[in-house]
Amino acid sequence: MKTERSESEKGRNTLKYSTYEFIKNKIICCEYEPGTFLNEEILCEETGVSRTPVRDALGRLEQEGLVKILPKKGVMISNLSINDMNMTYEFRLLLEPYILKNYGNTLDTDETLRYYQLFSDTKLLEDKSLSATADDDFHMWIVNACPNTYFKNSYIAIHNQNLRYRTLSGIRSREKAADEQTDHLTILSECLKGNWNEAAEAMRQHILNSKETSFRLLFSQNLGGTL
Fold first, then answer.
1. Band of residue 178 on the pLDDT scale cut at 50, 70, 90
2. Start-to-end C-alpha separation, the chain
3. Domain HTH gntR-type: where (predicted)?
4. For residue 171, pLDDT beyond 90
5. d(CA 12, CA 10)
6. Are 27 and 61 in contact (CB under 8 A)?
7. For labelling alongside 193, which of 36, 53, 207, 224 has CA 20 to 30 A away?
8. DSSP 31
């Protein structure tokens, strides 16, 4: 009986997680657009599950700032704004350099070398999707070096919002990818030398460069007023 119950619980948890991941990916890819309302019945049809895992997923997504549950109105996809974008960069400027400075020495050397080799390959620039994934993985790898779970959970929420900006604006030019790749190599070079203060400063400059390029590309596409 105990085994049967544990298997049943495992199945329910798997169902909850898959439902959460399905809805979250739709939001991040902006298939569910910012500012629009979600219909629970339609979500149940799309996910093929009952209301319980759907509501569980929506509650979790609200905690992550991706949806807002409005009494008597429904569930709305959180809007994106220039102010939100500013705040995400402000948060990253405080967090990522701090982690490198204080926990960089816990980063695995072999993994550091792997990332250095990855970003040294110019072929990465030819594949926007691969380049974006490498960038995401790199930053998450650094954040995961920090043992503070509050920092990591907060970063995940910020990371999800950054993915929405990227999808909505289409910001992934070859120029931006090339600049990021150069910045990453500078950071990794300092990491390999064990120069954590320098690595932290390189990360700070990288985030500032990313912010400047992102806003320039955003407004060049006349998207500044639509976020």
1. confident
2. 53
3. 13-80
4. no
5. 5
6. yes
7. 207
8. S
Report whether pLDDT(177) > 70. Answer: yes
Do the Cβ atoms of 166 and 177 come closer than 8 Å?
no
- DSSP E strand stretches across the chain: 37-38, 67-70, 74-77
- Do 168 and 130 touch, CB atoms closer than 8 A? no
CA dihedral 189, 194, 198, 201 (to 10 degrees): 80
User: Over the stretch 77-89, which tens digit does the pLDDT of each residue have?
Assistant: 998 888 888 999 9
pLDDT of residue 221 exceeding 80, the answer is no
Contact at 8 Å (CB) between 51 and 38? no
pLDDT confidence of 59, banded at 50, 70, 90?
very high
Q: Is the pLDDT of residue 2 over 90?
A: no
Find the mean pLDDT for residues 113-134: 88
Element (H, E) at 85: helix 82-103
Give the number of other CB atoms < 10 A from CB of residue 186. Answer: 18
Amino acid at 225: G
**Residue 37: strand, helix, or coil:** strand
Residue 188: CB atoms within 10 A of its CB come to: 23
Closest C-alpha to 56, from 13, 16, 11, 9:
16
Tell me which residue has tokens 């979790």: 60
Residues in the chain: 227
